[in-house]
Every structure is written in structure tokens, then in C-alpha cells.
Amino acid sequence: MSFDIFVMRFDKGETAPLDMAVAHEVLDPFAVARDPEADVLWVRTAEGDEADVYLQPPDGITFNHFDSGGIMDLLADLLRRLDAVLVVPGGPVVLTRDEARHQLPNAMVDDCPVVVARTGAEIDRAIRTA
After folding, report:
1. CA distances from 50 to 6, 92, 111, 122 (A)
2. Residue pair 93/84 in contact by the 8 Å Cβ criterion
């Protein structure tokens, strides 16, 4: 898919920093190329699925040009490890646990569908059906 989706954390309705060390722990084993100046990783899973990943410390990670399958599984792991949510512009906000819903900004909850998806397949389905 060739649009941007955003990994973010929220605390009491405000954007919160992501633990970029944890993000690297999850993403680096799949990095096939990187541009350290621009903080971009090109990742590929064992299944051959790929994505462009832009690290925007302290509070954002953007996925672009991503495949489903293995990339969605990688994304599910990243969301769990970072206790983060996935924001799909024009689509849902994807949580890996329902308890995170109360951390979202009120405007986000009011204006976007909020979906709990714990696996890569569930995240893929949430994005495609939005």
C-alpha cells in the first residue's frame, strides 16, 4: 500500500514519546537498508514483505509502501512492544488492547473509528475495511 500510517503513543489525550530503543529492537533485525541521516529504514520480513519506515523521534514512526502479511505482523509486534496505537488517516485508530482507548484524545475518539486488533491479520483487515 502506498499511503502513510502512523505509530503513536498517547497519555491522557496528549502525544507521548515512543521508546525508540525498543523500536530499533523490533525493526533492526528486518532492516535491509537504512539512511541514518533521514532516519529511514527499509525493512523486509522472512516472507519477502517490505515497507519504508520513517523514524521521527520522539513521538512518531511512519510506515509507507508497505505490504500486508509479514509487515502487518511486524507492525502488531511493534505496537505491543511500544504500547502504541496505529493511526490510519481517513480510517481507524487501531489499538492492540481496549484499555488504551482512554488514553486517546477525545477528538480522535469522536472523529475516528477505534478498533482493537491484536494480530497482523486483524490490523490488515481493519485498514482495508475502513
Report:
1. 16, 22, 30, 18
2. no
The total number of residues shown for the chain amounts to 130
Number of alpha carbons in the 13 Å side-chain half-sphere of residue 29: 9
Q: Give CA–CA dist 60/54, Å, rounded.
A: 8
On average, the pLDDT of the chain sits at 94
Q: In whole angstroms, what is the distance from residue 45 CA to residue 67 CA?
A: 10
C-alpha cell of residue 21: 530503543
- Reported pTM: 0.94
For residues 43-82, one letter each, b for 16 or more C-beta atoms within 10 angstroms of the residue's C-beta and e for the rest, the string is bbbeeebbbbbbbeeebbbbbeebbbebbbbbbbebbeeb
Distance, CA of 83 to CA of 51 (rounded, Å) = 21
